[in-house]
């Protein structure tokens, strides 16, 4: 079962805030009244008794201490910047396993935590953006892919030639080099989507068929309010081409709804492929994501 950290954080902030409010409105006045009553009943109040009467319940103390910290974390993660770790190679060579990235949370609009509803529009995703979003099959899981299709676009992917067409136009690719260590079995190409020029990775040879890498006719029309996503590792990415359809309408097969947008990945801040003591984090891949 996947854990939705954003939902967990919202719940923790709500609980801690409720405890702080309970103390402010109910418990603290009771403590003050008890102290005044005790002081009125004795000529020499004992410090130990005063301390006991003024003592906060342990749970309330924890809640009041954690509330501002968790609230700040919630605001930063929900509206400004959120970190993620890359768990798979679906975006190679742009992103490698173990890359730690930062995601701009406000560039696509200010959204309510958990619900994802836009409350303040800013800009719309552009073709070629590297975007973090909630996986339509399991919204508690975050995915990262490249924006291929915008609302209204017609997408076609030729599985034999591994060529991409958008609105009937072939997306040109320029061969760059064979992937180091692949012995010529994998090649990198440079692709341009909109204003974004980036590398993609392809295996040299036919696509290996299995039920998870067959998109049938491989043609889609992107409905309003949805986006079509693909990984840069074209032969090693589970993306809009192959997802099961969680929607009642077949036209929404593979589409990411706007409400599932999380943000735009904009930089790698360090890399740690194997988080173990003997393997230290590396700064060798630090830089902007293109």
UniProtKB/TrEMBL annotation:
InterPro entries noted in UniProt: LexA/Signal_pep-like_sf, Pept_S26A_signal_pept_1, Pept_S26A_signal_pept_1_CS, Pept_S26A_signal_pept_1_Lys-AS, Peptidase_S26
Residues of the active site: 90, 145
Q: What residue stretches are annotated with the Peptidase S26 domain?
A: 60-270
Q: Does the keyword Nucleus apply?
A: no
EC number of this enzyme: 3.4.21.89
| Alphabetical UniProt keywords | Hydrolase, Protease
GO MF terms here are: serine-type endopeptidase activity; signal peptidase activity
Record-linked PROSITE patterns: SPASE_I_2 (PS00760), SPASE_I_3 (PS00761)
Major enzyme class: hydrolase
Subcellular location, record wording: Membrane
In the record, the note on similarity to other proteins reads: Belongs to the peptidase S26 family.
* Protein name per its UniProtKB record: Signal peptidase I
């Amino acid at each position: 079962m996947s854990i939705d950290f954003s939902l967990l954080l919202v719940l923790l902030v709500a609980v801690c805030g409720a405890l702080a409010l309970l103390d402010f409105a109910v418990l603290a006045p009771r403590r003050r009244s008890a102290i005044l009553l005790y002081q009125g009943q004795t000529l020499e109040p004992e410090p130990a008794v005063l301390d006991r009467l003024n003592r906060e319940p342990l749970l309330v103390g924890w809640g009041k201490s954690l509330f501002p910290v968790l609230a700040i974390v919630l605001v930063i993660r929900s509206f400004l910047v959120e970190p993620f770790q890359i768990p798979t190679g679906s975006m190679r060579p742009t992103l490698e396993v173990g890359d730690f990235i930062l995601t701009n949370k406000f560039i696509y609009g200010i959204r309510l935590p958990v619900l994802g509803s836009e409350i303040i529009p800013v800009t719309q995703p552009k073709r070629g953006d590297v975007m973090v979003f909630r996986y339509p099959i399991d919204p508690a899981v975050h995915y990262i892919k490249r924006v291929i299709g915008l609302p209204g676009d017609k997408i076609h992917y030729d599985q034999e030639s591994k060529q991409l067409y958008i609105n009937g136009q072939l997306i040109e690719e320029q061969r760059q080099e064979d992937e180091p260590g692949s012995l010529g079995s994998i090649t990198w190409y440079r692709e341009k989507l909109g204003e974004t020029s980036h590398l993609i990775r392809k295996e040299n040879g036919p696509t290996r068929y299995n039920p998870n890498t067959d998109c049938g006719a491989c043609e889609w029309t992107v409905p309003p309010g949805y986006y079509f996503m693909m990984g840069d590792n074209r032969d090693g990415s589970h993306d809009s081409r192959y997802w099961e359809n969680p929607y009642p309408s077949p036209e929404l097969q593979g589409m990411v709804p706007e409400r599932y947008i999380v943000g735009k990945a904009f930089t790698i801040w360090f890399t740690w492929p194997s988080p173990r003591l003997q393997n230290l984090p590396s700064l060798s891949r630090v830089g902007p994501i293109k």
